[in-house]
UniProtKB/TrEMBL annotation:
Keywords of this entry: Isomerase, Magnesium, Metal-binding, Phosphoprotein
Superkingdom of the organism of origin: Bacteria
Name recorded for this polypeptide: Phosphomannomutase/phosphoglucomutase
Gene3D superfamilies: Alpha-D-Glucose-1,6-Bisphosphate, subunit A, domain 3, Alpha-D-phosphohexomutase, C-terminal domain
Source organism of this protein record: Actinacidiphila polyblastidii
Names of the cofactor(s): Mg(2+)
């Protein structure tokens, strides 16, 4: 029986192709997915990686063998797959490894209406069936095989997004977009078509070998080309998408990165203007500016653990209108509580184009603190080092603690969070303070304990 523990993660399937998984195993996953979700029909899409079309088709064959009709939407972004799942009311599977290197691939799965599937919501059962059937073979189904049909939803996806944000009256904007040879090169031209946007495309050629740079804008080195192009062209802003285009990062007219927390606060203010008194979700790594802005605009801020499954669960439970994470994942009630960087980008364009100022001035209102960014330390004894940090700060005046997700230590003018990675021997540190000097002091003190 196959051991799938190395590729079935907390929220998805991800591993090296064909070393860790291949098309025959993808077919088994498809059969298991249809069985666990009890689906009579599903929707399947894939990114531009060389292995994605074959894996996607194999998954569809497996689902069809269990009696499920399969709608193949072909090349798409992850949020386009979520759109299809929501609009068609079907469970869905997206073949992508997001920002991982070319030899990786994976599956992001959801139930009907883009409801997430993770370890505790079906993925463990899918893994168990796939492991069993990889040894015994997929049993014959009593149902007749399902039909497999193709459908293009890109135009509907673009039209739906534009229906949620009014861009008709914005001033003309010059926008540089770095797609990183990922799926943004497929979706951006259609979404922005007909809008008052002078689009300067970068790396729109779909290429799953990522010849220009990694499609991971969270790493500053992958923003360098975008920053230079914004300055070269005198653009109003720049946007960068990751490989499957579900995350979106921004740089201002000076080429300076815009904090995802500032984007979260800006979009929250816009959503609260349309939904007075609404609930906004944010994870505990986002800036303190987020709950401050939410309160100032009459909303209710709810703080959660890091990770899309927690955000989506809380979105549904609280009836939230919007949610944001420090990693540039943005979630919308009007998008089935799913994350879509493209919709956040449209909000940013609408906010900038609806006034005459520059982006740097616009986001300054929402970017109130200095931050360290996420700092990783390789640590064998994660629990022991975290306990040592807790002990070092225990008893200090004005300091408080919580353990919602790792260890968060807070004072009047600063806070930090220390979390263990779920998959690697790492401790992740985030520090925020009123000024950069305080950030540096707190960062250095914590790292001395963690790495000591």
């Amino acid at each position: 029986m196959a051991d799938l523990s190395q590729i079935v993660k907390a929220y998805d399937v991800r591993g090296v192709v064909p070393d860790q998984w291949d098309e025959p195993l993808a077919e088994i996953f498809g059969a298991a997915f249809a069985t666990v979700t009890d689906a009579t029909a599903i929707v399947v899409g894939h990114d531009m990686r060389p292995s994605s079309p074959g894996l996607s088709r194999a998954f569809g064959r497996g689902a069809a063998s269990r009696g499920a009709d399969v709608t193949e939407i072909g090349l798409c972004s992850t949020d386009e797959l979520y759109f299809a799942s929501g609009r068609l009311s079907l469970p869905g599977a997206m073949f992508t490894a997001s920002h991982n290197p070319a030899r990786y691939n994976g599956i992001k799965m959801c139930r009907s209406g883009a409801a997430p599937i993770g370890r505790d919501t079906g993925l463990a059962q899918i893994r168990a069936l796939a492991e069993k059937w990889s040894r015994t073979g997929v049993p014959a189904s009593a149902a007749a095989p399902g039909a497999i049909t193709a459908r293009d939803v890109l135009g509907d996806y673009a039209q739906f997004l534009r229906s949620l944000v009014d861009l008709a009256a914005i001033r003309p904007l010059k926008v540089v977009v770095d797609a990183g040879n990922g799926m943004g090169g497929h979706t951006v031209p259609t979404v922005l078509a007909g809008l008052p946007v002078d689009l300067v495309p970068m790396y729109f050629e779909l290429d799953g070998t990522f010849p220009n740079h990694e499609a991971n804008p969270l790493d500053p080195k992958n923003l360098v080309d975008l920053q230079a192009k914004v300055l070269e062209t005198g653009a109003d802003l720049g946007l960068a998408f990751d490989g499957d285009a579900d995350r979106c990062f921004a740089v201002d007219e000076r080429g300076e990165p815009v904090s995802p927390s500032a984007v979260t606060a800006l979009v929250a203010a816009r959503e609260l203007a349309a939904n007075p008194g609404g609930v906004i979700i944010h994870n505990l790594i986002t800036s303190r500016s987020v709950p401050e802005v939410v309160a100032e605009h009459g909303g209710i801020a709810v703080r959660t653990r890091v990770g899309h499954s927690f955000i989506k669960q809380e979105m549904a439970a609280a009836g939230a209108v919007f949610g944001g994470e420090h990693s540039a994942h943005y979630y919308f009630r009007d998008f089935w509580n799913a994350d879509t960087g493209m919709l956040a980008a449209l909000h940013l364009l609408a906010a900038l184009g609806g006034q005459d100022g520059r982006l740097s001035a616009l986001v300054a209102e929402y970017d109130r603190y200095a931050a360290s960014g996420e700092i990783n330390s390789t640590v064998a004894d994660q629990e022991g080092r975290t306990a040592a940090v807790l002990a070092a700060y225990t008893g200090r005046d004005g300091v408080c603690f919580d353990h919602l997700d790792g260890l968060t230590v807070s004072a009047a003018d600063w806070w930090f969070n220390l979390r263990a990675s779920n998959t690697e021997p790492l401790l992740r540190l985030n520090v925020e303070a009123r000024d950069a000097a305080t950030v540096a002091a707190v960062r250095d003190e914590v790292l001395a304990i963690v790495r000591g």
